[in-house]
C-alpha cells in the first residue's frame, strides 16, 4: 500500500491557466436557472401528494380486515335448479 502512495509523490504539479477561475464563473452564469414559480408548484404538488397519501392510509386503518376479506370472497351457493 505504501508503494502506491510513493508513486503519487512523484507526480508533478501542473500550473493552472490564469483565466481558469473567470472561465468557470462565466460557464456557471450561462446555465439556465429554474424559475421560483416552478419550484413552488413542484413543492405544492409534493405536499398535496404527501397529505393525500397520509389521509388514505389513515382512512384505510379504520376499516377492519374481516370486512375487506368478506367482500373479496363469495359465499358458496348450494341452491340447484331453483328448488
What is this entry, summarized?
Helices cover 65% and strands 0% of the residues.
Mean pLDDT reading: 82
Q: What quaternary form is this?
A: single chain
Q: What separation lies between the terminal Cα atoms?
A: 90 Å
Count of DSSP-assigned helices: 4
Total strands: 0
Largest beta-sheet characterization: none
Q: Into which percent range does the helicity of residues fall?
A: 55-70%
Q: What is the N-to-C succession of helices and strands?
A: HHHH
Output the structural class.
mainly alpha
Q: Beta fraction of the residues?
A: under 5%
**Unreliable parts:** none
Descriptive overview:
The protein is mainly α. It has a domain of 28 residues. The protein is built from 4 helices and no strands. The longest helix is centred in the middle third of the chain and has 27 residues.
Main attributes of the structure:
mainly alpha, 83 residues, 4 helices
Draw up the topology in text.
Layout: H1 2-9, H2 20-30, H3 36-62, H4 65-72
Amino acid at each position: 500500500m505504501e508503494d502506491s502512495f510513493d508513486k503519487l509523490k512523484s507526480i508533478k504539479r501542473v500550473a493552472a491557466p490564469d483565466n481558469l477561475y473567470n472561465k468557470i464563473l462565466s460557464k456557471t452564469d450561462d446555465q439556465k436557472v429554474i424559475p421560483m414559480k416552478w419550484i413552488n408548484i413542484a413543492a405544492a404538488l409534493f405536499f398535496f401528494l404527501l397529505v393525500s397519501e397520509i389521509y388514505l392510509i389513515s382512512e384505510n386503518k379504520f376499516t377492519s380486515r374481516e370486512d375487506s376479506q368478506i367482500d373479496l370472497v363469495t359465499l358458496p351457493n348450494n341452491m340447484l335448479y331453483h328448488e
